[in-house]
Amino acid sequence: MEPSPVLDLATARRTLDSQPFSRLLGARLTSFGGGGATLELDIREELHQQNGFLHGGVLAYAADNALTFAAGAVLGPYVLTGGFSVQYVRPATGRTLRARAEVVHAGRRQAVVRCDLLTLAEDGAETLCAVAQGTVLPVQAP
């Protein structure tokens, strides 16, 4: 059995960077560990929907990845999202999307994780735009 990689912010960032879609969106991890993770991406025009708001699919992507990274900080590096839901609170506008996830409960078979999706204005003020919750499952190492 191979030892698990050390789970730290640098390792988590390398994992995120290995995801082509995350690179396409310009996502970055700004914190990781202790059952939490924060993922951010710059809001740019090509990520908007027809009314000028950040597309809901981008919010769902951010929630999915933040949930999974937060759970990975507790369950180990080999995890997959079992499912999640997103409740959109208000249209997402601003300069940056921040997905801040925290493990609510972790057992041997799954972790339940909550994620607040916030936008940051030019002055740094945060506005809650969606809330997500999901389950993340440990899987066998590839």
UniProtKB/TrEMBL annotation:
Start and end of every Thioesterase domain? 51-117
Q: Which Gene3D superfamilies match?
A: Hotdog Thioesterase
- Which EC class does it fall in? hydrolase
Q: Which EC number(s) are documented for this chain?
A: 3.1.2.20
Question: For this protein, what reaction is catalysed?
Answer: a medium-chain fatty acyl-CoA + H2O = a medium-chain fatty acid + CoA + H(+); a fatty acyl-CoA + H2O = a fatty acid + CoA + H(+); a long-chain fatty acyl-CoA + H2O = a long-chain fatty acid + CoA + H(+)
- Which Pfam family would be a valid example here? 4HBT
What SUPFAM superfamilies does its record include?
Answer: Thioesterase/thiol ester dehydrase-isomerase (SSF54637)
Keywords of the record: Hydrolase
- GO molecular function terms noted in the UniProt entry: fatty acyl-CoA hydrolase activity
The text of the family note is: Belongs to the YigI thioesterase family.
Recorded protein name is Medium/long-chain acyl-CoA thioesterase YigI
- Classification lineage: Bacteria, Bacillati, Actinomycetota, Actinomycetes, Kitasatosporales
